[in-house]
C-alpha cells in the first residue's frame, strides 16, 4: 500500500526527493495507536486521501481513530485507564464535535473544540479491574454540528471488543 501511495505521488511530482516524500508521508499519516510517534505504529497509517487533498482547504474529515490501552497487567484490581482518540484528518478547523462513548453500561459524552488540521486529541476513561470479565465492548461515535461537511463519515464510529 505504501509503495502504491509513493508511486501515485511520484507520478504527479517526479522531482520529489526521498526526504521530501518521507516528510510528506509522515505529515499526512493517520493516527492508529497512541497519539504521536510510537513503537507499534511509528508515525501512523499512510493516507492516500490526506495526501491527495493536502492542498484542498475545504477538505474536512473528523475521525474517531480508536482506543488505546497502556500496559494491561492488573486485571481484577484497581482501575485501568484507556484513551479514546479523535483526529482531524482534514484541512479545516473543527469545533463543536460531540464524542459519545459507551462501555460496561456507561455512556459518556465529551465536546471537542478548536481541533486543528492533523491534530489528535484524546479523552481518558477508566475501567474498574473487578468489572472486567475478560472482554469489554466499547462503542464510540463522533457527531458533527449541522452544516459541517465530512468527506468520510464512515470513520466517525467505532465498535471494538477488547480481550484481556
Q: Identify low-pLDDT runs.
A: none
Shape annotation: globular
In quaternary terms, these chains amount to single chain
Distance between the termini: 31 Å
| SS summary, helix count | 3
Q: What would you report as the Rg, rounded to the nearest angstrom? A: 18 Å
Largest sheet: 4 strands, antiparallel
Number of strands: 7
Overall pLDDT metric: 89
> Which strand order does the major sheet show?
4-3-6-7
Q: Structural class given helices, strands, pairing?
A: alpha+beta
Short description:
It contains three helices and seven strands, in the order H-H-H-E-E-E-E-E-E-E. With 164 residues, it is of the alpha+beta class.
Describe this structure in words.
It is a single chain. This protein has 164 residues and is an alpha+beta fold. The chain has 3 helices and 7 strands. The protein has helices at residues 2-12, 18-27, 48-52; strands at residues 62-69, 79-88, 97-103, 106-112, 120-128, 135-143, 157-163. It has a 4-stranded antiparallel β-sheet with strand order 4-3-6-7, with no helix packed on it. It has a 3-stranded antiparallel β-sheet with strand order 1-2-5, with no helix packed on it. It is globular and about 60 Å long. The model has no long low-confidence stretch (mean pLDDT 89).
Give descriptors for this structure:
single chain, about 160 residues, alpha+beta, four-stranded antiparallel beta sheet, three-stranded antiparallel beta sheet, 3 helices
